């Protein structure tokens, strides 16, 4: 028989502190085996002997490897936890993925958050497409419609890296619609000097776009920022048809320089299109125009003689 040290024995009778264990020493061990938790599974996940019932893994309802308690979208799998606007709600379930709104309020109940809803007082809007460019390559569905393949993804943004003369169009092939609102942020990465193509430098969106099967520009509606050789930017509406460009209803915006960033909202629908551009100062310009031949087509981005960075593209659909 072996006994516990005197300090332990002082807490009870000497008999209570002694064990007949055949040579080993331990509290309740009896045969030198590892101690077993008297109430298995009760240690809150702390490491230690719990041989009869190992601690359960924390709940992970969407099975994306991120516990529900820390998952920024616990109902939809998103192992990368991308959160474009940093509001704590993951992009895959955020009703305004590009504008912070932790409360996810949607007064009209259409599932698009009030802070970005094209029509927050009337239901029927949906987020038809969002890309925060958080990968290392273009997602399947982006196609080059015109110009060189100078588009890439890195550092949480899409890059069109060439400011050489020429038009470059990238469009999302998996969405065709006639009535859309497009939100995009554009940073002018490079506006070269000189006067290629009558001083025209533009960056913006294309909608109602159909690529040409003969190598031309295709057809569609272009909405964006115009930058001339004096670095004055303008809101621009126009159309692309048979490889040529036509513009209408120009409106002055402000001076644009390399490294300037703009948030552009463009609505394109049968009969009408308009553009709202937010300047770095926060002031906006709205330009309306009528375009009778708007039809269903793709949505994309367009540059002419400038290089740009784009952190996100959001497309809202509209139901009648």
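^ Assign residues to that structure.
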């Amino acid at each position: 028989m072996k006994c516990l040290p005197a300090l332990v024995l002082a807490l009870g009778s000497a008999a209570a502190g002694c064990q007949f264990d055949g040579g080993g020493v331990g509290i309740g061990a009896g045969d030198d085996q590892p101690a077993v938790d008297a109430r298995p599974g009760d240690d809150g996940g702390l490491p230690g002997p719990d041989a009869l019932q190992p601690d359960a893994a924390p709940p992970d309802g969407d099975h994306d490897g991120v516990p529900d308690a820390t998952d920024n979208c616990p109902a939809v799998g998103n192992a990368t936890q991308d959160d474009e606007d940093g509001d704590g709600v993951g992009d895959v379930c955020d009703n305004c993925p590009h504008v912070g709104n932790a409360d996810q309020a949607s007064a009209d109940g259409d599932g698009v958050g009030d802070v970005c809803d094209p029509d927050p007082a009337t239901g029927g809007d949906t987020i038809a497409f969002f890309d925060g460019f958080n990968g290392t390559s273009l997602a399947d569905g982006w196609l080059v419609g015109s110009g060189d393949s100078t588009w890439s993804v890195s550092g949480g943004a899409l890059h069109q890296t060439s400011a050489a003369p020429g038009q470059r169009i990238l469009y999302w092939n998996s969405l065709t619609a006639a009535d859309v609102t497009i939100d995009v942020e554009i940073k002018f990465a490079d506006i070269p000097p000189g006067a290629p193509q009558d001083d025209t430098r533009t960056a913006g969106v294309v909608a109602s776009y159909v690529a040409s099967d003969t190598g031309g520009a295709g057809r569609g509606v272009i909405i964006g920022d115009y930058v001339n050789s004096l670095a004055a930017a303008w809101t621009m509406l126009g159309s692309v048809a048979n490889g040529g460009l036509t513009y209408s209803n120009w409106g002055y915006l402000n001076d644009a320089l390399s490294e300037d960033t703009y948030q552009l909202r463009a609505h394109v629908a049968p009969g009408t299109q308009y553009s709202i551009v937010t300047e770095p100062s926060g002031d906006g310009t709205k330009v309306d125009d009528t375009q009778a031949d708007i039809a269903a087509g793709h949505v994309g981005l367009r540059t002419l003689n400038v290089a740009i960075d784009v952190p996100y593209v959001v497309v809202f659909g509209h139901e009648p």
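Confidence is low (pLDDT under 50) at residues 1-30, 229-235, 237-255, 274-284.
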